[in-house]
Each structure stands twice: as C-alpha cells, then as structure tokens.
TrEMBL record:
It catalyses: ribonucleotidyl-uridine-RNA = a 5'-end dephospho-uridine-RNA + a 3'-end 2',3'-cyclophospho-ribonucleotide-RNA. GO terms for molecular function: hydrolase activity; lyase activity; metal ion binding; RNA binding; RNA endonuclease activity. PROSITE patterns: ENDOU (PS51959). This is Uridylate-specific endoribonuclease. Keywords: Endonuclease, Hydrolase, Lyase, Manganese, Metal-binding, Nuclease, RNA-binding. The keyword DNA-binding does not apply. Residues 4-278 form the EndoU domain. Monomer. It comes from Pogonophryne albipinna. Its EC number is 4.6.1.-.
Length: 284
C-alpha cells in the first residue's frame, strides 16, 4: 500500500470503530442474497436471480435515531430523472441543514473533521465546515447533457437518479434501497460478482447487486449495508477532499475496499461508492 492509503486506512478504521449507530447483520437486519444476477444484454431482458426481496428484516427502531430521521426526511426531496431541473424549496433547504447539524455532532463526523483540519483540507470553524459539506453534497449542478442544475452529490449517491427513464444511476445507499423495496418500487435481481470479486456474504457490510427501480434498471451497484448515514458522509467526504486520484484503496475491519469518488468541477461529488476487493479473516 502506498503511504497515503495507509494513512487513509487508519482514519477509515477510526470512522468504522466510532460508528455507534451501525446495525449488526443477523441481529438488527437480515438480507437474503438468493441467486446471482444476470449480465446479459439488453438490460430490459435481464433474468431475475432473486424471487424474493433483498431485505427480510430491518429493525426500524434505528430509523428513529436523530441522524437516520434527518437523513430519511431528505429522500423525497428530488426529481429522479436527470435533465429535469431541481426546484429546492425553503423547507428542503432547512431539512438539508438539519441533517448536517445532526451528523456534525456525531462521533464519526467529529473524527473526520479533526482529520481534515489537521490536513488543512477543511476549516476548523464548525459553521464553515458545515458550509463546505453543504457545497460538496447539496449544491446543485448540471449533470452531463443537462442545461440547468438537475443534480447534487447527495441526490445521486444516496437517493438515486434515472437517465432517460430506463437506466438507474447512482443510488448507493441501503436505507433508500430498503425503503423503496418496502414500498414496491425496487425489485432486487440478485447479487453481482465477477472473476476477481469475493463471494458475497449476508453477514458482511458491503454488497454488489442488481435491481430495478421505478422503470429503470441498475445493472450493477455497490453499497454499504447497515452503516449509519454519518459514517458514509464522513468516509466519502474524507476521500473526496484527500484523494485527487478518484479511486483509493483502503483497509478497515475485515474489508479491503476501493472507494471510487468522482469529482464534479472539483467542488462537488459526482458519484462515490465502495467496491469490495477482499474479505480479510479476523486475527485469531
């Protein structure tokens, strides 16, 4: 590992260890992997490798925690199709601020903030740090092919978007996936593996999968499962600000992971998600 990755791995481990709101697999939630997703084209004809939903159980008492509540309130604030300009109401702006106020107080974001200040990547002042987070995640920009601001880092990564009504882009969040599946908008098609990726595991926190949403298909997506919103915002913000490479390999807990983090105009997150490279067995 190159030195910066070792340093990032160390901070990622701290973020992971501080995530007191993370759900435990097999106890607080259960998923059913079922079959492997098809990779045949065209996408409309994909076979369904899973006859049942992905989530068989989630203890929704976690959704009553402040950061989860504030996060879930943001999920209905967006028009999913790219090219449709986003109109942000004063109520939605207030919800964005409330979410950031909540997560900034979490142990996980405090660790991320301290690290970013030490690296001169974020302002020490909490209000200014919140402004930086707002710009990265919530400031609107025009995605490829759009003439007016139609997207944001938060919408793309956590809510999901559709392109041309047929292709799902972004949508890398397990809470949104669970809630949309529960409402009947998501159809899980199976897990995704290739020759180099490890076999998925129902008791691990990272999963590559295929699903349809509304009328579109996500041929392959990768998500953390069971982690808190503050963990994901902290991890992705650290990667966005500290790594110009747009792909960084880190190790934490049992995972060797590549964090993909594409920048948009150097100011905003275009997309970001985890790619599982390997499970490491815990030391005896």
């Amino acid at each position: 590992m190159i030195e910066s990755d070792r340093e990032l791995s160390s901070i990622m481990q701290e973020l992971w260890d501080s995530d007191v709101n993370r759900l435990q697999p097999g106890k607080d939630y259960m998923i059913s992997l079922q079959g492997k997703a098809a990779h045949s084209m065209p996408l409309e004809d994909l076979n369904d490798g899973a006859g049942s939903p992905l989530f068989t159980f989630v203890d929704e008492k976690f959704f009553k925690k402040d950061t989860f509540l504030a996060f879930i309130s943001l999920l209905d604030n967006y028009v999913s199709d790219t090219g449709e300009p986003e109109i942000v109401t004063p109520e939605e702006v207030a919800e964005n601020h409330k979410f950031l106020d909540c997560i900034i107080q979490s142990p996980t974001m405090k660790i991320a903030h301290k690290y970013l200040v030490e690296k001169n990547l974020s302002p020490k002042n909490e209000t200014k740090f919140k402004e930086q987070l707002y710009r990265i995640w919530f400031e609107l920009y025009a995605r490829k092919g759009a003439s007016k601001p139609d997207s944001s880092g938060f919408e793309h990564v956590f809510v999901g978007e559709t392109r041309g009504g047929r292709t799902v882009i972004g949508f890398h969040n397990w809470i949104q996936l669970y809630l949309q599946e529960k409402m009947g908008h998501v159809d899980y098609k199976g897990y995704s593996v290739d020759a180099h990726s490890p076999q998925p595991d129902e008791n691990k926190h990272i999963l590559a999968l295929q699903f349809s949403w509304k009328d579109g298909i996500k041929p392959k997506g990768s998500i953390f499962v069971g982690v808190s919103p503050e963990f994901e915002i902290a991890l992705y913000t650290v990667c966005f600000l500290s790594s110009p490479n747009e792909r960084v390999k880190v190790q934490f807990s049992f995972y060797d992971v590549e964090i993909v983090c594409h920048h948009h105009n150097e100011k905003h997150i275009g997309t970001t998600y985890p790619v599982l490279l390997k499970y490491r067995k815990p030391a005896q």
